[in-house]
């Protein structure tokens, strides 16, 4: 028997009813349903796309459990926490270190300019002078006006003394060199002789030097002249000295940078008159801001020595 | 190092840093401070007049 030979079931008015062929009973039967849809045999139907079988779900559940077991064990978590703790300790050490910039301190960054469309950072040049400003600058340095302002600051003095510009700016011109030596003054540090400072002709044309005369009479006298300079990156210092005795030999010249005595003319009886002599010192072992000090002494009653110092120059490494 | 300065064999001062002069008569003689103390004593600064440079040899007398 087959479905082709069976009668279709009918509904009212002998109309063909919704039906299906049941091979078990070998006849057509009315199609039954519920909630607006006909019954469907799920077990024997194909699984819809994207749906998971129970076996597949069991497989994925097993994989998740295995993954959890690998990651979330106490040992793994402890290891991760330990590493985080180590990192925290290192960051605290860096933060508190003086060797590098402290993280909790302000880092000064001064940058001018703008980010333009081609994604390159363009930094504007600073301190650009036009011709008028340059002429004004030259005039002010020529008459010493600007020098007087510059020498008030340690860095201004240091900058002015840098070779090879110092000769052109200071030591071959009267007003600028006089303005430079005016940064300090000679002070008697011991004794009773009269100390008389002045500026007079220096070692090179038109430039002037600082000179101090210690008068006759009184007891042994010393006098100092000093100012600060920044010796960072300075390799050499040179200065001209001149000693005129005008009487019995008994003088001394000492030059200091900080506590380092870079020059001594020897015992009070060994110093001798000399014309301008250039003395050059390797000061590369000295760094930072230090006091540069000239110290002179007159130790006998009947001498009236005059000590002159000129053309102080610094050379960078 | 101590850089002793001599003119005509007589001491004319010293420097505690490397030193040079435009005076052609000046001769600079570098010496380790320990050697200078051995030669002239720890108060060598007060005895500079006793230091002489004779034929390139430092003499204390």
Describe the SSE topology.
The complex is a heterodimer of chains A (317) and B (61).
Chain A: E1 19-22, E2 27-30, E3 33-34, E4 37-38, H1 54-71, H2 74-95, E5 113-115, E6 121-123, H3 131-142, H4 145-150, H5 154-160, H6 165-171, H7 174-181, E7 187-190, E8 195-201, E9 208-214, E10 221-230, E11 234-244, E12 251-257, E13 260-264, E14 274-282, E15 289-298, E16 306-316
Antiparallel strand pairs in A: 1-2, 3-4, 5-6, 7-10, 8-9, 9-16, 10-15, 11-14, 11-16, 12-13, 12-15
Chain B: E1 2-7, E2 10-15, E3 19-21, E4 26-31, H1 33-40, E5 51-54, E6 57-60
Antiparallel strand pairs in B: 1-2, 1-4, 5-6
What does this structure look like?
Chain A is α+β, with helices and mostly antiparallel strands and 317 residues long. Among the domains of chain A are: 3-33, no CATH class; 131-180, no CATH class; 186-316, Galactose-binding domain-like (Jelly Rolls). Chain A is 25% helix and 31% strand. Chain A has 7 helices and 16 strands. Chain A has helices at 54-71, 74-95, 131-142, 145-150, 154-160, 165-171, 174-181, and strands spanning 19-22, 27-30, 33-34, 37-38, 113-115, 121-123, 187-190, 195-201, 208-214, 221-230, 234-244, 251-257, 260-264, 274-282, 289-298, 306-316. Chain A has a 5-stranded antiparallel β-sheet with strand order 7-10-15-12-13. In chain A, strand 1 and strand 2 form a beta hairpin. The longest helix of chain A is centred in the first third of the chain and has 22 residues, at 74-95. By secondary structure, chain B is mainly beta. Chain B has one domain (2-60). Chain B has 1 helix and 6 strands. Chain B has one helix at residues 33-40; strands spanning 2-7, 10-15, 19-21, 26-31, 51-54, 57-60. In chain B, strands 2-1-4 form a 3-stranded antiparallel β-sheet. A two-stranded antiparallel ribbon of chain B has the order 5-6. The relative contact order of chain B is 0.27. Classes of the chains: A alpha+beta (317), B mainly beta (61). The A-B interface holds A 260-267, 269-272, 274, 277-283, 285-286 and B 5, 7, 10-23, 45-46, 48-49. Strand 14 of chain A pairs antiparallel with strand 3 of chain B, so a sheet runs across the interface.
